[in-house]
Amino acid sequence: MNITTVETGIILIVDDNPNNLQILSDTLIDTGWKILFAINGESAIAQAEYACPDLILLDVVMPGMDGFTTCDRLKSNPQTCDIPIIFMTALSDTVDKIQGFSLGAVDYITKPFEQEEVIARVKTHLKIRNLTKQQQIQNQQLRAEIGERLAVQAKLQMLTQDLEQRVEERTSQLSQTLHNLHQAQVSLVQREKMSALGELVAGIAHEINNPVNFILGNLSHASEYTQSFIDLLNLYQEYYPQPVAEIVNKLAEIDLDYLIDDFPAIISSMHKGTKRMAQMIHALRYFSCRDDSIAQPIDIHEGIDSILLILQYRLQANPERPEIQVIKEYENLPLVTCFLAPLNQVFMNIFINAIDAIEEVFFNNDLALSHYQGQIRIRTNFNEQYSVVTIQIADNGIGMTPEVKQRLSEPMFTTKPIGKGTGLGLSISRQIIEEKHKGNLWFRSEVGEGTEFWIEIPIVRN
Ligand SMILES: Nc1ncnc2c1ncn2[C@@H]1O[C@H](COP(=O)(O)OP(=O)(O)OP(=O)(O)O)[C@@H](O)[C@H]1O
Ligand SMILES: [Mg+2]
Q: Average pLDDT of each block of 10 consecutive residues along the chain (462 residues)?
C-alpha cells in the first residue's frame, strides 16, 4: 500500500514477539517514518532516552517488565514523560484498558493489526505530538518574548521614572529661577523707582526747605513788627486826632480800620500755610530718605503720618467725590528698627491702592452715592509677648474678586489701566516686609466690603 504522510516522526515499537515487530514494520515502512524496535521494557526505556521517539507503540503483555510498568517508568522520567504511548493488546488479552489510560497512554490498538487503523492512529497521534511540540516551542518562544518584553518594560519604567524625576527637578529649578528672576526684577524696579523719585523729591525738598524756614522764621518777626506799627498808628491817632486833609483822604482810601483788623489774620494764615509747607517738606524728606542700607529705630506713626501728608492731595475732596476719611487708631508703639525708605514705600503702595479702590466705587456706580463715605482705617498694635508690631490698613473700597485674589501672585498683575499701574506695588511691599524685615504681610478682601492689609514687623530681627 502506498501511503504518503505529511507528518514526520520516529516511532519506537516495543514487542517481545518478532512477528508482531515484522508486521508493524511492514505496515509502516512506506510512511517515511523512522522505525526503532525494542523487544522488552528495559531496552525500550534505554532507546526512548537515547533517541527521543515521537511515539511509542508498546505491547502490554511482555515477559519481565510488562507494558504498564514500562509505561509508568517512561512517564515518571522527565526525559521521556512527554512521549505519547499507544498500547498494543491482543483481542484475547484481558487487560485493564482504564489502567493504561490512567498511566498516561493516549490510545490502544489491537492485534491482529488492522493496517489502515494502525496507520490512521499513528498518524493522528504523531500529528497531535507534532502540534504539541510546536505548541511547546511557541510557548517557549512566547515565554521568552514575554520575559524580554517584561525586561524592556521594566527598563522603560525605570527610564520613565528617571525622566519624570529629572523633569520634576528641572521644573522646580526653573520655577525657582523664575521666582528669583521676578524677585530680582522687583528689587530692580523698586531701586530704580526709589532712586529716581527719591533723588528728585530729596532735591526739591532740600531746595524748598531753606526758603520756607526763612519765611517761617521771619513771619513771627513780621507779626511782631506789624503789631508795633499798629500800636504806633493807634498812638498817633490818640495824640493827633485832627490830621491834615491829605492824611484823612489816605485813611479813607486805604480803610485803615479794616487793614488793622485784617492784617494780623493774614499774617496768621501765612504762618499756618508756611508751617504746613514745612511739615510737607519734612514728610517728603522723611519719605525720600535715601539710605536704605542701614536699619534704624523708627517711629512707625511718624512714617505713616508723613505718607498721609504727602498723599493729602489724593485724600481731599475733588469734583468726582468727597474727601476720603482717614481714621487713626494708634496704640503706643515702641521704636522699631526698620529700613526707613523701603518701609515708607510699603505704606505708600498700600495707601495708594486703598485710594484707588475707593475711587473705583465711584467709577463703578453712576448713581449718586450720597450715603457712601470713602474711609481708610489705620490700626496699630504692639504685641509684647511676641515682640511684634502690627499695622492694619483697611479700606471700604471696591474689594477684590476671587479671580483678582488668585492672580495676585502672578508677576506684574494689575487691573489698572496702562500707565496707571505696573502691578508691582504688592510684590515690592511683600518683599520689603517679608525679606528685608522678616515680617509678614497678608490681606483679606471681599467685593463690596473692602480690603484689609496686615503688616507684622518683629521689633527684633535675627
Ligand atoms: N486695596 C485694594 N482694593 C482692591 N484691589 C486691590 C487693593 N490693593 C490691590 N488691589 C488689586 O491688586 C492689584 C495689584 O496691586 P499692586 O499694588 O501690586 O499693583 P497696581 O496697584 O496695579 O500697580 P502699582 O505697581 O502701580 O502698584 C491691583 O491692580 C488691584 O486690582
Ligand atoms: Mg499698587
A: 60 93 87 91 94 94 93 94 92 76 90 87 89 89 93 93 93 87 75 70 83 89 90 91 91 90 90 88 76 82 91 91 95 92 90 95 68 94 94 96 90 84 86 92 95 94 63
User: How many structural domains are present in the chain?
Assistant: 2
Ligand nearest to the CA of 409: 1
User: What CATH code is carried by the domain that includes residue 453?
Assistant: 3.30.565.10
CA-based nearest residue to 429, from 404, 408, 403: 408
Q: Is residue 222 part of a domain?
A: no
Choice from 414, 420, 442 to test ligand 1 binding pocket (greatest atom count within 8 A of CB): 414
Q: Which three cell numbers stand for residue 313?
A: 492731595
What is the whole-number distance in angstroms between the Cα of residue 440 and the centre of ligand 2? 18
Range of the domain at 21: 10-113
pLDDT score recorded for residue 1? 42
CB under 6 Å to ligand 1: residues?
349, 353-354, 357, 395, 397-400, 404, 408, 413-416, 421-427, 451
**Distance from Cα 457 to the centre of ligand 2, integer Å:** 21
| Domain end among 98, 113, 128 | 113
21 in Cβ contact with 88 (< 8 Å): no
- Nearest ligand to the C-alpha atom of residue 360: 1
The DSSP line for 194-210 is HHHHHHHHHHHHHHHHH
Of 52, 79, 113, the domain-final residue: 113
* CATH code for position 70: 3.40.50.2300
* Concatenated DSSP letters of 153-171: HHHHHHHHHHHHHHHHHHH
What distance in Å separates the CA atoms of residue 7 and residue 20, rounded to the nearest whole number?
A: 23
